[in-house]
Amino acid sequence: MNPALQGLMTIAVGVGGCLAYFYFSNLVLDRFIFPARGAQAGRNINRANMVRPWLFVFPAFFFLLLYLGYPVFETLRLSLTDRALGGAFVGFANYEQMMNEPKFWEAMRNNMLWLIVVPAASTAFGLLAAQLTDRIGWGNIAKSLIFMPMAISFVGASVIFKLIYEARPVDAAQIGVMNAVWLNFEGGIWSFIFLRVFPAILCGAFAVIAAYVGYLAARPLWEDRPGPREGVMMKGARAFLGLFGLWLAWVSVRGVWGVLTASLPYGEPINWLTLPFYNNFLLMVILIWIQTGFAMVILSAALRGIPEETIEAAIIDGAKPLQLFFQIKVPQIMGTIVVVWTTITLVVLKIFDIVFAMTNGQWETQVLANYMYDKLFRANDWGVGSASAIVIMALVTPILVWNVHNARKEMR
C-alpha cells in the first residue's frame, strides 16, 4: 500500500474511532445506563454527569497504561531475568554485572557531565537571548532564528555538526569549518591569545562562578537567619552543593594549567570527535544549540510577565542595568528558570540520538541510553539492557515529579 494512502487511512481510522467512541459511549450512558426519564430522572442525570468525564479520560488512561505502565513493569521483570538461562529469575545479578562494567561507569560519568553543562548553558543562553531580543526592534526575527533549531531533529542536527567537525587529510581541502579555522593558526601571538589565553580565562571565570555558587548555597549553614529552621535533608543538600561547587572550581583551575601547558599540533587537521573528554563538549554543543531556543521562548514570556511597577521602582532607586536584571528580574522568574532547567535535564538524561549518530559511544562518549541500546539490540542481553533502562527511569522520575510540582505551583 502507498505510504501516503496508509497515513491518510490511519488518520481517518484514528479520528473516526475517537468520534465513534465518544458518540456511542455517551449514547449508551444516557439511554440505557442512566436514562433521563421516569421517577429517577434527576438522579440519573446527575449520575451520568459524574460518569461522563471518566468516559473522556478512559482512552488516554488506557493507552497510558498500555504503552507506559506495562513497559515499565515488563522492563523491571526482564532486568531480574537472564535470557541465556531461558528467562530464569536471577535477582540482582544483572545489576551486579552492569556495575562491574567500565562502560557503564563511563556512561554515568558522561551523563553527569552532560547534566552539569547542558541545562546550565542552555538556560543561561536562553535567558540572555530573551533579555536582549526584547530590547531590539527586530527582536521577533531574532527569536525566530534562535528558535529554528528546535524544528530540526537530533539526528539532523548531528549530521550538520558532523560536517562542521569533519577532518580530511592534510593535502585535501577541509570541508569542516573547525579544521578550516584551525589550520590558520601557526603558533604565533594570535594562536597564543585565542588557543591559550582566551580558554584559560574562560576556565578561570567558570572556576570563580562555581566557587561563588557553592558559597551562596552553603552560606545559610553558618549564618543565623530569621524564619523556620531548615531540615537535615536541606542542610545536607546545601553542604553537597557547596562541596560540589568547590570541586568544580578546583577542576577548572587545573584546566587553566592544562590549557596553558598543552602541546598543540599546529598545521595538522584534527579528528575532533576522537579527542577523549573534549569530544563530549563538542557533542553537548549540539543539544545546547537546539535547547537554547526553547529556554528563550519560555523565559521571554516570564520576563514579559514581570510587573512594571517593580522595575520602575528599582530604576527610581538608582538600580543599574545589571542590578536591575540580576536582583530584580531574575528573582521574580526563578520558578520559571527552575522549570526550564529541569525540563532540559530530563532531555539530557534520555539523550541518545546525538551520541548514536556522531560517535556511537566510541572514544569515551558513551551515555546511558546508548549503553542500554548496545546491550539490548547488539549484545541481545535483555537483562543488563533492562537494568540500565531502570537506572535511567530512576534518575528521571524524581526530576519529573519535581518539575510537575513546580509547574502546578506556578499555575496556582
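Next protein, fold it too.
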Amino acid sequence: MAAMTFPVTIWQGFSGKTADAAVEATNSQLKTDFRYPQLIYTLQGHGGTVKSLAFSPDSKILASGGADNEGVIRLWNLTTGNRLGTIRKAHKTAVESLVISPDGQTLASCSSDYTINLWNLKNQKFKRSFVGHSTNVLSLAVSPDNQVLISGGMDGIRLWDLPQQRPLATLASFGNLIHTLAVSPDGQTLASGDYQGVVKLWSLVSEKLTRAYVGHTDIVTAVAFTPNGEHLITASRDRTIKIWNIYTGELVRTLKGHNNWVNAIAIHPDGKTLASAGKDGIKLWDWTTGELINTLSGHTDWISAIAFSPNGQMLASGSFDKQIKVWGITPKGN
C-alpha cells in the first residue's frame, strides 16, 4: 500500500515541545505499542473547553463539542487531520455531550440550554430538536440497534425514539442528578452516574432500576461497559476508577493513580485496555490486572474528554486548553 503524506503536529517524545512537519504516515505507524504511542494530530479551532468527542463507526470522522460561546460542533477528517465541517450555533450554550448513531447517519448533541439536537452527519444539516428536560442536559447515549437515544441531566433520564424522532419515556425524574450515561453492548441495560456518587443500572426493557453500586465518595464523572458486557467501569472526582461485576454487583478492583479528579474514561476495543484522564494527563491501564501501562502528556490543562476509535487505532483527547490531540495507539503484538 502506498504511503500517504500530510501535515501534522508531532509529539516529540515527552519533552513538551511540538514541531510542524510533513510526515509520511503508514499503517505501520499507527500500529504502535500502548507503551509507545505517537501523537498524530493536534486539532485546533475551539474557543473553549472541549467537553465531548465522538468517533464515527468507520473511524474516519471525529466530532467535537465544547464550551464555545456559540455552542459550536466541529467535524474532523481523520485521514488528513483537516476540519471537515463546522456546525455553528448548534446550541445557545455549551455542547455538553455528543454521540453518533451506530449506523453513522445521525449526530446527536445536548447542551446546558436544556435541548437535544439531531444532525445529519454527512451534510451537517439540522434534523430536529428534542425538548423535555427542564435543566442542563449533560450526557447522551444511544442503543446499539439505533432505536433509542437516552439523555441524562439534572432532572433525570429520558428515552427518545430515534427513527421516529419522538419521546418514549421518562426513566428517572428529579432526585436522580445524572452526570453520565452508557448503554450495554446488548442494548438491554443503561448505566448512570450521578452527583451523589451512586452508579445505577436500569433495564431498558422494563424501564426499572435493577441495581445500585455505592462506593464512590464524589460525583461519578464517567461510566463505560466492557465490550463483552460483563463489567462496568466507573470514574469519579474522588480520584478513583472502579470495576464492577455486572452479574454479581461485586466490586472487582479499584484503580488509584490520578492525583485529582478523573474526568473521563474510555475502553479500547480489545476489552482490556482502559484510558482515563484528568488534570495529570492520560493514563493507560490493563484493568484486568490493575497494571498502569503508561501516562501520556501533551495537553497544557485539564483533560475533559477521551475516546478510542472503533477500529482501535486512535485515541482522541479534548482539554480545557481548547485543543484536541489524536494519538496512534493499538495493542502490543499487533
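About the second fold: DSSP finds one helix and 30 strands in the chain.
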